[in-house]
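Support reply, case 0932

Customer input (verbatim):
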Amino acid sequence: MSWKRPTWVREQALWAQGMRWVAGVDEAGRGAWAGPVTAAAVVFPPEAMHVPELACVRDSKQLTPTQRLACSQVIKRWARAWGLGWASPREIETIGIGAATRRAMHRALAGLSLQVDAVLIDHVTLPGPWYWDAFPRGDQLVISIAAASILAKVSRDAYMRAMSVAYPGYGFEQHKGYGTQQHRVALARQGPSPLHRRTFRPVMARLALGRT
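Our regenerated output:
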């Protein structure tokens, strides 16, 4: 697969229109069977375009865990503001994964130290007191969205590693709650933990088995 390098084109267009603070927003954990959905928002100043260190920024899926962690520190150093937002497994069960993802994104934006003028986002609609635009594969095309994807992934992975101590035997430190064969076997053996999303089909199936 040929990966695209994200660019500053979208941010530049908005800066040229007088929108000073442009946030890129992305999430991690939307498709997992367990754990929260985590969102990040990143606002770069225009001068960040000329920072060579930010060449590390890619869609988080293109980077190794070590590369993501190192790049996350670069992003935090050069961002004008960044924020994280979370939606819990219980929220996901109650309002659905789409609404929970938007809730986490709104929380990430609310956690910024400034009021954004515009939001660039990967595919999800996000109405609010800002101009917004969504792009399919935005994390591959727009550098602030790619930066948000890295912060969201690094933060959520760290949380799931910590939860592997609280809930041993599921392998959260390895698969981070996603649907691997290891996770399927552990779920069948141990049943759902408090971190599991009980409205997700594999978890529902295990719950139904436990009631028979």
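We compared this against your earlier run and they match. Two observations from our side: Residues 9-167 form a domain with the Nucleotidyltransferase; domain 5 fold (CATH 3.30.420.10). The first strand starts at residue 22 and ends at 28. Please reopen the case if you see a mismatch on your end.
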